Amino acid sequence: MSAASPTLAPARRGAGAGARPRARRRLLLNSAACLTIAVCVFPVYWMITTAFTPHRDIQSGTPRLLPHTWTLQHFRTAVAADGFALFWRNSLLVTAGAVLLALVVALGASYAVARMRWRGGRPFMLLVFIAQMAPWEALIIPVYIISRDTGMLDRLPTLTLVYFMMTLPFTIVVLRGFIAAIPPELEEAAQVDGCTRRHAFRHITFPLLAPGLMATSLFGYITAWNEFAYANFLIIKQQDSRTLPVWLSSFQNVFGTDWGATMAASTLFALPALAVFLLLQRHVTAGFAAGAVKG
To answer: What is the pTM of this model?
Structure first.
C-alpha cells in the first residue's frame, strides 16, 4: 500500500487538473447559452409586460421590469379595433391554404425524388435548393408587376400563392429526407401482399411521415402567419383583404403610436403560433432531425 500511494497521488492530481478546464469550459458554454436565451426572450417579455401596463406608466419614461399596476384595457382596445375579426380570418385562410397546398405538392414531389429513379431528379433538387436560398424580399417587385398585369392585386388568393411558393422548397427538402429514411422494403412487402403502389404509400409510408408533415406544417404556418412585406405591397386598395401583420401597424392616433394596444395586439397575434408549436414540439424535433440528416 505504501508503494502504490506515490503512484496514485499524481494520477489524482492529474485528474483534478483536467477537470478544472472542463468545468470552466462548461461554465462558459452555459453562460453563453443563458445570455443568448436572455437576448431572445427579453423582447417577448417586454412586449407582454407592456401589454399589461397602463398607458400613463408607459408614457412616464421610467422603465420597470414589472408593471406597477396591471390592466386589460389594451387587450380590449385591440379586440374592439376595426377589422380585428376580419383580418384574423384573412390570415387564417391565407395561412391554411398555403400550408395545405405546399404539403400536397411537396408530398408528391419529395416521394418522386426519394423513391423513383428518373433523369431529372438531381437537377430538380438543385433547383429546389436554389429556390430555397433565394431572398424572397428581392422578388417583391417582380411579383408585384406580375400580379398587377394579371389583375391579381388586392386578392387573398394572390397572397396564398406567394406564401405557397415561399414554403414549398423547404417542405420538399424536409419531406424528401424523411421519406428516404423509411425503408422501401416496407412498401415492397405490402405490394407483394397485393397492395398497389398507391395503397402501399397510403397505408405504410404516409402514417410514418407524421413528424415530417408536422415539422413542415409548422414552418409554413409561421412563415405565412408572420409575413408582412408581401401583404403590405400586394394588398393596396382593398383594405378588407389585409392580414394581421399589416393590421398591427394601425394603432396610431393624433398623439402617435398607441404602444399599449400595439403590444396587446402583438401578444394576441403571437399566441396561435406559440400554441401550435407547443402542441407539435416533439414531432417537430423528430421531423427536422430526420429531414436534415437522412437521404
So the answer is: 0.78
